[in-house]
Amino acid sequence: MKKICLVLLFSASIFANAQTNITYPESLILVPEKSNFEKTSTYADVMQFLNSIKTMSPNIYVGSIGKSTLEKDIPMVVLANPMVQTPAAAKASGKPVIYIQANIHAGEIEGYWVIKKTYSTTKLLYLCPFIIQMVMIKWQRV
Known about the structure:
Elements: H1 2-20, H2 31-34, H3 43-53, E1 60-67, E2 73-79, H4 87-93, E3 100-101, H5 110-118, E4 133-134
Parallel strand pairs: 2-4
Antiparallel strand pairs: 1-2, 3-4
């Protein structure tokens, strides 16, 4: 009986570990990861990433929550089924709204890594590059 329990326990641990290993498409691997963390992503890199993810699902909306001091769009991503693009539509859906902010400044990757490590077994991970404002509703108060 002990041997059977040990085999089952060992098998379960193998399957649990197998579930946490995620392989990402090349378009979802960011500059820091590609450069062994010797470089950070530029604004253009982030915008290219956003253009990649918005084509992955009809439920992804990529927009802007405002302008930076350099007059560049501050990107955000909304994930909803069905897709929503306004706070009023999000409120009308009756679904919970979740706000996740991966980072504030372009060169800071800590927020991205916390999200990546914390949610490494979910598809949410695919939507969390650093600098992106992962927003379900942030544009304005409804």
